[in-house]
Design a protein that fits this description.
single chain; mainly alpha; 38% helix; elongated
Length: 89
């Protein structure tokens, strides 16, 4: 899929964006919806995450794996270190 140019983005109707008021995160295709979830996970606020996640879940059921309440959203697992079984020389 080619990059979304400014001209093509302007042609997308407002109803195809996850956050309609500011026209953020286009979800007109499954690929863009997946990217929207990723971008909002990295850069969005908690309210934006909920809004994008619910918009994607409405348009593409089964695509969102977490609950709409975002329980545990953004938590990371603790890193586990592997024990060395042999001695260093």
């Amino acid at each position: 899929m080619a990059r979304l140019s400014a001209a093509r983005r302007k042609k997308i109707p407002t109803s195809k964006f996850a956050i309609k008021r500011s026209r953020k995160y286009p979800i007109d295709t499954r690929r863009r919806a997946a990217k929207a979830l990723g971008f909002v996970g990295m850069h969005g606020t908690a309210a934006q995450k909920r809004q994008v996640q619910s918009a994607v879940a409405r348009k593409y059921p089964g695509m969102v794996k977490t609950s709409p309440t975002l329980k545990g959203f953004g938590r990371r697992r603790a890193k586990t270190t592997r024990r060395r079984t042999t001695r260093r020389k």
